[in-house]
Amino acid sequence: MLTLCGFAISNYYNKVKLALLEKGADFNEETVMTGGKDEAVLSCSPLGKVPFIRTEHGALCESEAIMGYIEANWPEPALLPSDAWGQAKIHELVTFIDLHLELVARQLYASAFFGAPALPDGDRERIRKQLARHIAGFKRLAKFAPFVAGDRFTQADCAAYVSLPLVALATKTALGEDLLAAGGIDWKPYAKLIAERPSAQKVDADRKAQQQKMAAAAKA
């Protein structure tokens, strides 16, 4: 049986978990925090990043590689179109979300969510400009009709649902403005739509439970 390793606050962990739940796959979960340096982690994820999975074939890291493995081994319900062009367009959207939106906004997370000092004004302005440009590019690709790639739930939604709210909240907290909304991305109705799915409800409940657990541990 597949074991998903990571922790329920990680958006990339939840991206993979959402796909597994949508597939109805049998899997175990193992809590592993990011940045682990012991051999048991590094032998599976050489940079100590999460998520990674353990399978009958061995370990696999990087969320997009894992998503490909999931789609190949649990083809139904399909989270990718059947044609090569349609698949490529989904991967294009996921790349924009993961690399051009979330990874840029991640520079704000320490100050937005974890109490770190605010970034210098120059860095904040650089991030603002970069995100504004990338959001405009994403807007050209995303359809929200009603799903991010069109009329069906796909891997792009697994990425979008766990990352777009983070980008919005991080920019609002650290930069004083929800740059997604400012850029014309009406993400809240979309997030509400996905949140109605049982898979998303499970991911959200587990994330909130781990947040509460970590908050209690910090106070102890």
Any overview of this molecule?
- This protein is an alpha+beta fold.
- The chain folds into two domains: about 70 residues, Glutaredoxin, CATH 3.40.30.10; about 140 residues, Glutathione S-transferase Yfyf (Class Pi), Chain A, domain 2 (Up-down Bundle), CATH 1.20.1050.
- It is about 60% helix and about 10% strand.
- The protein has a four-stranded mixed sheet with strand order 2-1-3-4, covered by helices on one side.
- The longest helix has 22 residues.
- The mean pLDDT is about 95.
Please outline the helices and strands.
Blueprint: E1 2-6, H1 11-23, E2 27-31, H2 39-42, E3 52-55, E4 58-61, H3 63-73, H4 84-105, H5 109-113, H6 121-141, H7 155-175, H8 179-182, H9 187-195, H10 198-219
Parallel strand pairs: 1-2
Antiparallel strand pairs: 1-3, 3-4
Helix pairs in contact: 1-3, 1-7, 1-10, 4-6, 4-7, 7-9
Number of helices: 10
Note the gap between the termini. Answer: 36 Å
Helix coverage percent: 55-70%
- SSE arrangement, N to C: EHEHEEHHHHHHHH
C-alpha geometry: globular
Strand content range: 5-15%
Strand order of the largest sheet: 2-1-3-4
> Which fold does the CATH topology of the largest domain refer to?
Glutathione S-transferase Yfyf (Class Pi), Chain A, domain 2
The main sheet comes to: 4 strands, mixed
In the CATH hierarchy, the architecture of the largest domain is Up-down Bundle
Q: Helix/strand/pairing class, anyone?
A: alpha+beta
Under the CATH scheme, which class of the largest domain?
Answer: Mainly Alpha
Mean pLDDT: 97
